[in-house]
Each structure stands twice: as structure tokens, then as C-alpha cells.
Specification:
It is a single chain. Helices cover 91% and strands 0% of the residues. It is mainly alpha-helical and 91 residues long. The chain has one domain (3-89).
């Protein structure tokens, strides 16, 4: 086998091996975006529910909604970072 053919075969093999890693990265990103959107949707629903309340009760409700949103965002980010680290470790 000549050098050119060997280079083509090696390049094709490398491309095949990189496809699953690329797919895992796309899946992690899609999961992260989905979790962020779900957190945002839940936050909007919680804030809407707070509008029927008055005074200190409404303030407490809005603070809890904001805190729940921050926790959901942090959880999504941590999960994404873990997926990225696992993907990097598997390479």
C-alpha cells in the first residue's frame, strides 16, 4: 500500500472515531439548553402565580421563585460540566 492510500485510510478511520464524540457533545449541549429553558419556563409560571398574592407574601413568593430558578440553572450548568468532563475523559 502506498503512502497516499495509507494516509487516506488513516484519515477515514480518524473521522469515524470522532463522530461519536461529536454526537455526545451535541447531546450534552442540547440537554443543557433544554434544562435552561425548562428552568426559565418554571420561573415564569411561579412568578405568575405570585401575582395573585399581596405584600410580604408576594415578596416571599417571588424570592422563592428566583431562588428555585437559580438552583435549576446551577444544576443544569453542573450537569453540563460533568457531561463535558466525562466526554473529555473518554477521549
Amino acid at each position: 500500500m502506498n503512502k497516499f492510500a495509507l494516509t487516506i485510510v488513516a484519515g477515514a478511520f480518524a473521522a469515524i472515531l470522532s463522530v461519536p464524540a461529536f454526537s455526545a457533545d451535541k447531546a450534552a449541549t442540547a440537554d443543557y439548553k433544554s434544562a435552561k429553558k425548562q428552568a426559565q419556563d418554571q420561573y415564569k409560571a411561579a412568578k405568575k402565580a405570585c401575582k395573585s398574592m399581596k405584600g410580604a407574601e408576594q415578596e416571599a413568593c417571588e424570592k422563592e421563585a428566583k431562588a428555585a430558578h437559580a438552583r435549576a440553572d446551577a444544576n443544569a450548568k453542573a450537569t453540563y460540566k460533568q457531561a463535558k468532563a466525562a466526554d473529555k475523559a473518554s477521549k
